[in-house]
Every structure is written in C-alpha cells, then in structure tokens.
Amino acid sequence: MTSWPWLAAAFALLVAGLAPAVWGVATGPLRRRVVAQNTATLVVCLAFLLLSQGYGRTSYVDLALVLAVVGPAGTLVYARLLAEDLERDPPRARGTVHVAVALTVLVVVPLCVAAGPGRATAKLVVIGALLVVGNVVASRALGGRQLKELGHG
C-alpha cells in the first residue's frame, strides 16, 4: 500500500535537491563539486527515508543508514585526495550545514511521528543524527583549516 503524500515529498526533494546537486557536481569549480557531492548524498538519503514510508519498505531505511555513514566518509576521502587543490580555493560550505540540518529535521521528525514509538523511530533518530554530524564533520574538513592536516597528515 503506497502513501502518496510521502512519495510526493520524496519526488519534490529529489527534484528540488538532487537536480541542483547533480548540476553542481557536473559543472563549475572543484570547491563547488565537493560540496554538491556531499549535498547529493544527504538528499538521496532523505529521499530513501521518505520512499520507505511511502512504499512501506523498511529495507529503504537500511539503505539510508548505510548512505548516512558512507556519504560523509566519501566527502572526507575527496577532501583528503584533493587537499592541495581545495586549500588554494577552499569551499564555502557554511550555509549547507544549516540547510542539511533543516532538511534532516523536516524529514526525520514527521517520519518519527508517523512511525510511532519503537525501534523504527530510534533508527530514524540515529540516521538523522548521523546525517547532521556527518555534514558538520565534512563541512569542517572542507573548510580549509583541516585540509592542511589532511594533506600533510
């Protein structure tokens, strides 16, 4: 049984969030590409959560959990590999952290309410926390100060 409001929210998130992120990854300077890659993983992870509720498939939550861990880790790998280039022209990712936190809260809180108390809600809260912490860590790593440590560590 599908729930159309959740599917519509997932579609809107993918159109409004993933399309600009893919464009950012495909074009422009390196600093924008790395930030856009991190944003794309956030958007896809949140879309998995909405699709899970819309289709009633808990396996999508597991995919979101894996992506919440691997996505920011991938950004850190890019930051490490591209440290010298990013040090010369560091990304400006401060606003993206606020957007990431807001999007995560806007998606995870209603899903927690819909799921009700229990294990599913705990999993959603963990995924939300991983997304927020991962974006903060990745943003700090891309901010420049940590790039020197990554490149010469």
The number of strands is 0
Over all CA atoms, what is the radius of gyration? 16 Å
SS-derived structural category: mainly alpha
Give the helix tally.
7
- Note the run of SSEs as H and E: HHHHHHH
Unreliable stretches (pLDDT < 50, length at least 5) are none
> What is the residue-mean pLDDT, rounded to a whole number?
87
**Terminal CA distance:** 52 Å
Shape: elongated
Strand content: under 5%
Helix content: over 70%
Number of domains: 1
Task: Give the biggest sheet.
Answer: none
Written description of the protein model:
This protein is mainly α. Helix content is 86%, strand content 0%. Helix 2 packs antiparallel against helix 3, helix 2 runs parallel beside helix 5 (94-115) and helix 3 runs parallel beside helix 6 (119-142). The N and C termini lie far apart (52 Å). 33% of the residues are buried.
Write the layout of secondary structure elements.
Layout: H1 4-26, H2 30-55, H3 59-81, H4 83-88, H5 94-115, H6 119-142, H7 145-152
Helix pairs in contact: 1-2, 2-3, 2-5, 2-6, 3-6, 5-6
Short description:
This protein is mainly α and 153 residues long. The chain is 86% helix and 0% strand.
Features:
86% helix, 0% strand, mainly alpha, 153 residues
